[in-house]
């Protein structure tokens, strides 16, 4: 049996649903136990994460079009604070964005910005709660990225 750690934030429940279903899928199909770090529950508390982890982040931007204006992150900053605290970003092997394609150029933009800011890869994205095929697709990508990251350490 092995483990996966996921740090995420969810304001309206979509990302939480995805993380729960991803965890169930990994347990059932790979016998992997998932440690869920739900940033919303922490009330701005931070702590060091000593094991490799993946971050999952919805985008909430304040208006704009994501190109020349409107890329100001609102509501999800506590995840960025958690990742930067205690050098946690060094153990983050990648980020997955969630969002809504109706936002066009702003689709999952905050996850892309975190990838640039912290230097870890953007592993993928999904819309809203994600479908079962998103879970299967992203589970494979996450496990491969975790394996490669662990092998390099
Ligand atoms: C005020 C507001 C702004 C949003 N801005 C964006 C955006 O800029 N880009 C995007 O891809 N999705 C945007 N979304 C969609 C959310 O990222 C999407 O609904 C996501 O699934 C929410 O995740 P959560 O339910 O875990 O909080 C926005 C949603 C709201 C309510």
UniProtKB/TrEMBL annotation:
One of its GO terms (molecular function) is FMN binding. Pfam families: Flavodoxin_NdrI. NCBIfam families: PRK02551.1 (NF002714). InterPro entries: Flavoprotein-like_sf (IPR029039), RNR_NrdI (IPR004465). It comes from the Bacteria. It comes from Streptococcus henryi. This is Putative NrdI-like protein. Gene3D superfamilies: 3.40.50.360.
